[in-house]
Design brief:
- There is one protein chain.
- The protein is of the alpha+beta class and about 400 residues long.
- The chain has 9 helices and 12 strands.
- Strand 4 and strand 5 form a beta hairpin.
- It is extended.
Length: about 400
C-alpha cells in the first residue's frame, strides 16, 4: 500500500538498486548536485599506490558472521607483519587493505583460510567497482590424486587428470609426504558453488577405466549429500535424507601422516611426572613413597648386626645404648632430660646404666649465653688483675658467679 502525503515508493523499505536506477532516469539534478570533485592524475597515482594491495572477502555461508570474531581469527592465523585494515561493506562482505608485499603474498597464495570450519573466499579488488557485484566464487585448494600407476605418472597425464578438479595452478610430482597415501599434489582453483570432485577417471585402451581417488587438504566442511561447501546435510533441503543419498563423506579429507618411532612429547612426559609428584597427581603411578628417618630403625636391611671386638654389646642392648647416646628415646614424643637422670655419683650430665649395669656419658651442656654488654662490664670489673691472664682465658668461658660479684661491687 502506498504511503500517504505524496511520498513515492523510492524511499520505501526493500527497494533494490534496479528500482533506484529506474528512478534516476526521471530525476532532475540540482546545482549543488552537479558540483564535481575532481581527482587529478597525480592524486590518482598516490591513491593507487596506497591501495595496491586490496582484497574482497566473504565467508562461504548463508549465516551471519561476526566482524570482530572474523578479524581476530584471521589476524591470529595470518600472523602478518603489519595489521591490515578491515572494513565491513555489507552482510558477510569485507574489504582488506594490506601494507606490504609479503603480507599480500601470504594471504593470497597460502590459502584456503578457514573461519569456524567455513572457507573464506578472497579475491583481488582494485577499489573502483562496486564490491557487491564482484564475483566471490572461487578459491585455490590443495588436492591429492591417489594411486596413479607408476607407468602413467607423467606430468602430461597428471595435468589432464588435474583439469577434472579445477583450473590447475601448479603440480607437485615429488614432495615431502606429510599426508598418508601415495599421491600427487595439485593446486587448483575450484568454484565453491559446485560439488567437489571425488574421482578422476583414467581410461586405458584394452584395460578399462580406473577411478583415482581425490582428497583435499585443509578444506571447509561440505554437505555429504550434494557435496557443496558451506552447509551440512541437515541444512540441505529439509534435512531428511535416506542412507543411499549420502554420496560424500570424511574419506575425502586428507589425513595427516602419523610419526613413527617418535620421542614422547613434552606434554606426555609432564603428565607422567604429574601423576607421581605434581600438583595434579592422584597417585595413579604406584611409586614407592619416600621414607622418613624413623623408618630406618625398623628396616632389617640397614640394622647394625655386625659383630666386632670393639663393640661391647649386641642386639637390643646395643641399640638402646646408641639411642641414648644420641639423646633420643624410642618414643619420638618423649624427650630425654639430662638434669633428672643421675649418673654414677648423682651428678647431672650422665645417663643411668642400662640392663647390663653399664653407664653412658651424655653430651656436655652448652655454656650460658653472655651478651656483649655483659662482657664489657666483666672486663671493666676485672681491672688490672685479670689483664695479665686475659690472653690465656676465653671470655666465653667466664662463669656466672664472678659476674654477680662484680655487679654487686659496682
Amino acid at each position: 500500500m502506498a504511503a500517504k502525503g505524496g511520498r513515492s515508493g523510492l524511499g520505501a523499505k526493500g527497494d533494490d538498486s534496479a528500482a533506484l536506477e529506474r528512478a534516476l532516469k526521471n530525476l532532475e539534478l540540482r546545482e549543488g548536485e552537479l558540483d564535481d570533485v575532481i581527482i587529478g592524475k597525480k592524486d590518482l597515482e598516490v591513491l593507487h599506490k596506497r591501495s595496491r594491495w586490496m582484497a574482497l572477502a566473504r565467508v562461504n555461508t548463508r549465516k551471519a558472521c561476526s566482524t570482530d570474531a572474523l578479524f581476530q581469527t584471521l589476524r591470529y592465523i595470518w600472523g602478518l607483519a603489519i595489521d591490515p585494515e578491515l572494513r565491513e561493506v555489507d552482510d558477510n562482505l569485507f574489504t582488506f587493505k594490506f601494507f606490504c608485499l609479503g603480507d599480500w603474498n601470504k594471504v593470497m597464495l597460502q590459502g584456503p583460510w578457514l573461519f569456524r570450519k567455513l572457507v573464506v573466499v578472497i579475491s583481488e579488488y582494485d577499489g573502483k567497482g562496486n564490491p557487491r557485484s564482484a564475483p566471490l566464487e572461487r578459491i585455490e585448494v590443495w588436492s591429492q590424486i591417489h594411486a596413479i600407476p607408476e607407468l602413467y605418472r607423467e606430468v602430461e597425464i597428471v595435468d589432464q587428470l588435474a583439469r577434472r578438479i579445477g583450473k590447475v595452478k601448479s603440480i607437485e610430482m615429488t614432495h615431502q609426504r606429510w599426508f598418508e597415501g601415495d599421491y600427487v599434489r595439485v593446486r587448483a582453483s575450484i568454484n565453491v558453488s559446485d560439488p567437489l570432485i571425488r574421482f578422476t577417471p583414467l581410461n586405458i585402451e584394452g584395460e578399462g577405466r580406473q577411478m583415482l581417488q581425490v582428497k583435499y587438504e585443509k578444506i571447509g566442511y561440505f554437505c555429504n549429500v550434494c557435496g557443496v561447501m558451506g552447509h551440512d546435510m541437515e541444512e540441505c533441503g529439509d534435512g531428511v535424507h535416506k542412507e543411499e543419498d549420502v554420496q560424500y563423506g570424511n574419506w575425502m579429507y586428507a589425513q595427516r601422516r602419523a610419526q613413527i618411532n617418535s620421542l614422547p612429547s613434552f606434554r606426555a612426559s609432564f603428565a607422567i611426572r604429574g601423576r607421581c609428584r605434581g600438583r595434579g597427581g592422584r597417585g595413579e603411578w604406584n611409586a614407592e613413597r619416600k621414607r622418613s628417618s624413623e623408618d630406618a630403625f625398623e628396616d632389617d636391611e640397614v640394622k647394625d648386626t655386625a659383630s666386632s671386638p670393639l663393640k661391647t654389646g649386641t642386639g637390643a642392648a646395643m641399640e638402646e645404648d646408641n639411642v641414648l647416646a644420641m639423646g633420643v628415646r624410642k618414643d619420638p614424643m618423649q624427650r630425654l632430660n639430662f638434669d633428672e637422670i643421675p649418673g654414677e655419683e648423682g651428678a647431672p650430665g650422665t645417663v643411668e646404666a642400662g640392663t647390663d649395669g653399664k653407664g653412658t656419658t651424655a653430651p656436655p651442656m652448652h655454656p650460658p649465653y653472655i651478651g656483649p654488654r655483659e662482657k664489657k662490664r666483666t672486663k671493666k670489673g676485672d681491672g688490672s688483675t685479670n689483664s695479665a691472664s686475659s690472653s690465656d682465658t676465653n671470655p666465653m668461658a667466664t662463669s656466672a658467679a664472678p659476674f654477680e660479684e662484680d655487679r654487686r661491687a659496682q
